[in-house]
């Protein structure tokens, strides 16, 4: 198990370097090849030439690419100082960039919004795992029944309906129409009940989409597993159906579910743009949308990095869970 963990950690470290390098190239190298003035992108097209030249000097855009990427990496781990003549700006570690438009470091703004997005992603993930997997297992066990057909119809609706439709519909019915839920976001530090009341509709709306997908993949996987020889052997040995399903079938079915969870949860931690915008949640998704509208490139870069790192960490955790669920993984 230790050797497996070391291999996975080493692979994650290598992938981290690759991710940071690719993000740097996307924002600094490729636009330059396309003839885009990167300094103008950071300060805005309406900026005067002196401001553009100052930002170009602060970012070191005239340096060789290898030196620029070194400063980029260095800033992430030890901080960075942007200097142009007598104008000096320090960005503390981890420096995910600095917005010269709003005169703000990217990292403090993103960390202020991160708890909102993290709470949204984790709460929705808990709901879609519980209800999606349970619905998928029951549908596989009762294949062709009324429950199976009804659950798959609901799952199809969940996959087909966009979040902004189900979100606005839930607000119209439960918040504005019946006045059952106050959808106003309240920070957890201010009030637990207010936080839960403000997040319950976003959780359900987001979980409805993902639970539908998890129900369908769980049903398909379970139906395939229930036809395997080892399941028939377990039943022939006299094991109860509960033991066969929980200790044998579910262990195999968890592998694709964990794979999906790692990708979905990692991506959501980078910001659920539609959900956060629909319910006016001050999370990363809403921030990156505001940054896109205002063409504030450093914040777009910062959220891109956080999303990439979240997917990497989530998949590292999934790889470790693979070894717990299926011991054969440790030897592969």
Summarize the model shown:
With 332 residues, the chain is mostly helical. It has helices spanning 2-33, 38-43, 49-59, 65-78, 106-141, 146-160, 163-177, 192-225, 229-236, 241-269, 273-278, 284-294, 297-325; strands at 80-84, 87-91, 98-99, 104-105. Strands 1-2 form a two-stranded antiparallel ribbon.
Question: How would you characterize the overall build of this protein?
Answer:
It is a single chain. It contains 13 helices and 4 strands. It folds into 2 domains: 2-95, no CATH class; 108-296, MetI-like fold, CATH 1.10.3720.10. The strands form 2 sheets. The protein has a two-stranded antiparallel ribbon. It has helices at 2-33, 38-43, 49-59, 65-78, 106-141, 146-160, 163-177, 192-225, 229-236, 241-269, 273-278, 284-294, 297-325; strands at residues 80-84, 87-91, 98-99, 104-105. Helices cover 74% and strands 4% of the residues. The chain has 332 residues and is mainly α.
Give structural attributes.
two-stranded antiparallel ribbon; 74% helix; 13 helices; mainly alpha; two-stranded antiparallel sheet; MetI-like fold; 2 domains; 332 residues
Strand tally? 4
Can you tell me the number of structural domains?
2
For the terminal residues, how far apart are their CA atoms?
A: 11 Å
What composes the largest sheet?
Answer: 2 strands, antiparallel
């Amino acid at each position: 198990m230790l050797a497996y963990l070391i291999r996975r950690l080493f692979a994650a470290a290598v992938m981290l370097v690759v991710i940071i390098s690719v993000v740097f190239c996307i924002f600094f190298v490729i636009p330059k090849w396309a003839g885009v003035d990167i300094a103008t992108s950071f300060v805005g097209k309406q900026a005067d030439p002196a401001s553009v030249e100052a930002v170009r000097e602060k970012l070191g855009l005239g340096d060789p690419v290898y030196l620029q990427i070194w400063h980029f990496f260095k800033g992430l781990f030890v901080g960075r100082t942007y200097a142009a003549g007598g104008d000096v700006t320090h960005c503390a570690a981890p420096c995910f960039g600095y917005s010269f438009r709003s005169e703000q470091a990217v990292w403090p703004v993103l960390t202020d919004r991160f708890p909102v997005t993290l709470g949204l992603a984790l709460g929705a993930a808990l709901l879609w795992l519980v209800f999606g997997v349970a619905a998928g297992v029951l549908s596989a066990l009762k294949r062709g029944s009324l429950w199976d057909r009804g659950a798959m119809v609901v799952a199809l609706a969940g996959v087909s309906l966009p979040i902004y439709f189900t979100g606005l519909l839930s607000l119209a019915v439960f918040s504005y129409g019946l006045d059952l839920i106050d959808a106003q976001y309240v920070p957890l530090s201010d009030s637990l009940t207010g936080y839960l009341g403000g997040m319950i509709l976003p959780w359900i709306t987001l979980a409805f989409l993902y639970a539908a997908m998890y129900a369908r993949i769980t049903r398909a996987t379970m139906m395939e597993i229930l036809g395997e020889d080892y399941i028939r052997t377990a039943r022939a040995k006299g094991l109860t159906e509960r033991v066969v399903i929980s200790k044998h079938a579910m262990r195999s079915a968890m592998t694709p579910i964990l794979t999906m969870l790692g990708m979905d949860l990692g991506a959501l931690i980078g910001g659920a743009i539609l959900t956060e915008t629909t319910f006016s949640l001050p999370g990363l998704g809403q921030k990156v949308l505001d940054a896109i509208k205002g063409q504030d490139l450093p914040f777009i870069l910062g959220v891109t990095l956080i999303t990439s790192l979240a997917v990497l960490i989530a998949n590292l955790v999934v790889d470790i869970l693979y070894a717990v669920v299926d011991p054969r993984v440790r030897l592969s």
